[in-house]
Amino acid sequence: MINEVVYAVGYQGMVYRFEDNRRWIRFDRGLPSTIDLQAIGGGEEELCAVGRHGAIWIRDRDRWSECASPTNWHLTCITSTPSGEIYVAGHRGTLIRGKGAVWEVVDHDSTKSDLWSLQWFDGHLYAATIDDVLVLDDDALVSLSPNTLSSSYRLDVFRDKLWSFGQFDVAFWNGDEWSTICKADA
Questions:
Q1: Nearest-CA neighbor of 7 among 49, 67, 60?
Q2: Contact present, 90 and 75 (Cβ < 8 Å)
Q3: How many degrees, rounded to 5, is the angle at CA 176 between CA 170 and CA 181?
Q4: Cα 87–126–147 angle (5° rounding)?
Q5: In the chain, where are the structural domains located?
Q6: CATH topology for the 7-183 domain
Q7: What is the pTM assigned to this prediction?
Q8: Over the stretch 41-85, which tens digit does the pLDDT of each residue have?
Q9: How are beta strands 161-166 and 153-158 bridged, if at all?
Q10: CB 110 within 8 A of CB 134
Q11: CA neighbor of 145 nearest in space, from 121, 173, 181, 170
Q12: Which of 38, 36, 104 is nearest to 71 (CA)?
């Protein structure tokens, strides 16, 4: 969801937007059918779609444009900061940031695990692997859940809490500590 509007992306350059009258409309004119998209984010003024092989596409003023990507790894997730900076992550610990046509790798050297979800919460960037939640601290991804969560995967922010949804755990971070809602046997 971007500014209360639901979008969906997929293979062959497909982007859909859910309109008020409860129907999906194509929103991908100008995107090639040769790209496979994994995530979309940003804001209404500048949408950013990312995907396989490091694909980064920006929609600005009703036009999609390809950006030079600093990676060839698959990009799986995206989030933006209140100032409009965009963070994108993906396979092998890839983390990049940018806006418009300018993108740079965040050289964190912290993990080579695939990053599956990003969220901006309480002034910080959080990332999820399949079994950990990390926070970006001075361009290093630091584990936030050692010996607390046995799984993660998706992050979401709801009611002033960062939620982690994994195969074995559902938990939230209040900014100081984790509270587990559900824990299954790993």
A1: 49
A2: yes
A3: 20
A4: 150
A5: 7-183
A6: Neuraminidase (2.120.10)
A7: 0.92
A8: 987 678 999 999 999 999 988 899 999 999 999 999 999 999 999
A9: antiparallel
A10: yes
A11: 173
A12: 104
